Amino acid sequence: MxxxxxxxxxxxxxxxxxxxxxxxxxSANLANQANxxxxxxxxxxxxxxxxIDSNVASIVVLVAGAALVVRRVSPDPLLFTTVRAxxxxxxxxxxxxxxxxxxxxxxxxxxxxxxxxxxxxxxxxIYLLLDWLFAPGRVSLDGKRLWAILAxxxxxxxxxxxRGPLTIDASTGANWYPYPFLNPATSAxxxxxxxxxxxxIALVITAIGAGAIRVTRGRRxxxxxxxxx
Length: 229
Prior knowledge:
Elements: H1 2-34, H2 39-46, H3 50-70, H4 78-102, H5 114-134, H6 145-163, H7 191-228
Helix pairs in contact: 1-2, 1-3, 1-5, 3-4, 3-5, 4-5, 4-6, 4-7, 6-7
């Protein structure tokens, strides 16, 4: 089982890295063709997507997880399990939000590579969830760890909403936001719609994060019951 997940983690990490690099190179190339001076702007915007940040974090977690198995570290350190719980929460949220709200909508990152898009929004979230549920090594987390899981989304939303009004996309002349539902200029009811979307997604992240923590505690309780049986 450990060998299987070690191999899978390395393979999926490589696939995610290929997808991120492929889309970044494609977007930067399109920007360079249109206006070489805009490449830096496009690169910063690229890494302002929650999807990209979550997938880059997934690469780190998967590689680190494989390394822990190779080094025969068992169980996993508490810090690693906490970060892993956070990343799987972000990735599952990414998969849900993309497939419910964004699939079929052109995002402001240049032409999207279809194969990269599917890896980042479908394949990677599904694997991260399966890895969390079935890979050995994770330790029990208490409810206080939920704040650690929520920390990055809170910072990301604050960064996005503060940066948007200050950032002008030279190609469109409009303010730049990574996702249309966060742009008050394109949302039906302006900031009211944005606020409702933020609250809804925050509830989803909180629920998924709490569920991820509950899974670790359920496994511990099962082991305790089996020893007492």
